[in-house]
Input
Amino acid sequence: MSDRSSHTVAFVRETVIPQSAPPITEAGVVKWMRDNLFSTPFYSLLTIAALFAIYWLLSGVIPWLWNGVWTGSSLAECRENLNGATGGCFAVLTERWHQLIFGISYPSEEYWRPTLAFVLLFVAAAPVLFINLPRNLLIVTLLYPFVAFWLIWGGSILSPIVALVGFGVGYFVYSRYVARSFAAAAAGGLVAAIIVWNIGGYISAAGSDILALEPVASRQLGGFMINMMLGVVCVSLSLPLGIALALGRQSHMPVVKMICVVFIEFIRGVPLITLLFVASVVLAYFFPPETNLDLVLRVIIMITMFSAAYIAEVVRGGLAALPRGQYEAADSLGLDYAQSMRLIILPQALKISIPGIVNVAVGLFKDTTLVSVISMFDLVGMIRGPILASTEWKGVYWELWAFAALLFFVVCYGISQYSQWLERKLQTGHR
Amino acid sequence: MAEQAKSMVSDKVAVSIEGMNKWYGTFHVLRDIDLTVYQGERIVIAGPSGSGKSTLIRCINALEEHQKGKITVDGTVLSSDLKNIDKIRSEVGMCFQHFNLFPHLTILENCTLAPIWVRKTPKKEAEEIAMHFLKKVKIPDQANKYPGQLSGGQQQRVAIARSLCMRPRIMLFDEPTSALDPEMIKEVLDTMVELAQEGMTMLCVTHEMGFARQVADRVIFMDEGQIVEQNEPEEFFNNPKSPRTKLFLSQILGH
Output
């Protein structure tokens, strides 16, 4: 210290240098632009090209949205209103709104029913999606399918109640005997449920006017409602089925394993559109002629099987990623198979599989538009068929397809954001 | 201390293994193993890697299946019946080389999981038991953290506490200190010594020869799937009989 200071000239500062701004080239927007947009001549060129592309895109889209015509009953009227200016004929959306959402033949005075079912969907999904909510709310989730069925298809409230009671009795029988033997309990539960459903069939037939809503047939459903229904039902059914298939594929029992492998490989090897044609046409040959399985139900079965096969493979990847020590630790504590899967293995494997599962779910939701090919009038079917074919709205492609894209984008982006939130929430530090 | 410890060994059999053989495919990993462990006895199993020592103790709680011979644990003969296996596993605690804590559960949940689901202990009581054993391994303040936030030595002590929460009658240790930094080995060994002093029946696969000298009632030396030599630690270390044992000891104690 003394050594060093002896070489320097003595100095005492008496004033404080005030803070000053950095040179304009080194701060704020200018610096950011220099760093990110114009760092080299080539990048500057790219920036200018990109800006031009954005300008070109926006100069087309903004007037189209801004000058858009929202009222009117036909394309001709809309063109007249526009009077040569650039603008979208969004009147088709307002005029055909109900058709786009509910389809052609859903009784218009009953639109409140699917709308209510849609709103209740969020209430029912919340306890599943947000783990912090009280667990008793899951009762709402369990009741929702029956309520939604009653709201959308109508009829007496007795049928969904009978279905619910059947499940309840089946589960009761199962839970009483499961301690002794899983197979016997499962079979017993199934038999009990079938008995209840058969007896209940007579009761609901007898009391068909109790709390009855106007019945709506499956072929009367349409529009975006069908996409939502298929999406929600198939995702929630294919997730448990997919997990079961993934576990089955890992099973030490050769028969179970073989059934799962064959199922997964077969379903994955076939295009979904083929399965849908099977559902709409061929499946009828396999059932006795008097059974009349609903087309929507057949489609639900096919899409569920299809995405379950994919989810099974995603979950299998998650299971394979777990160290063997986790299985051994669970075993060494004396947990049985079901407990170790439910408490130790699946929570970790599913967490790893979230991105893959969401990928399948988003894909599935968009694939529901394929039902338009088997002449169901979902959103795409409605646009392609009744609306674009009508004399009033022939040729309004951009507005309709942009609307369809927007609806699907909102849902899919929502799913994706939720999954990222969930992944962050389940992060428990290091593995 | 060694004298006092030895008096705890009773003449009741905890584990008995008779003529046990095991194959991986065609490879004969364990050959004609005969071993009787008495209650309160502490056994250290040593041997070169690949000698079958881990496989041997993993057979005791049926993490590995044996193909021939008879294993009796606490009076129950090990059979392939799942209920029987789960019962034995709930009586036998095990600690692994890589701890194998459940990373998605907190330390406390790791410890209460098996008592709640296997023993059907009420949650509150299970938490009390867990805190009791976490205090014993000296990390009660970490109870609400996740395993990933703890050091290796702490994780291994949690793993010991997790096993103890099931009130096991026998503890198996599969190289519990092999994956640890030298500084952390001591804290884990201290915990194990304390456990030994309380009279727990223990089978340890370990390379910690100091631990073997201090704690073991018997040291078993294995090579090529066979028990080559077993003796009291003093005799085993000072006066090994078989040439293979001599070679092994000269190699691990030589430096």
About this structure: Chain A touches chain B at residues 323, 325-326, 328-337, 339, 343-344, 347-348, 351, 426, 428-431 (CB under 8 Å).
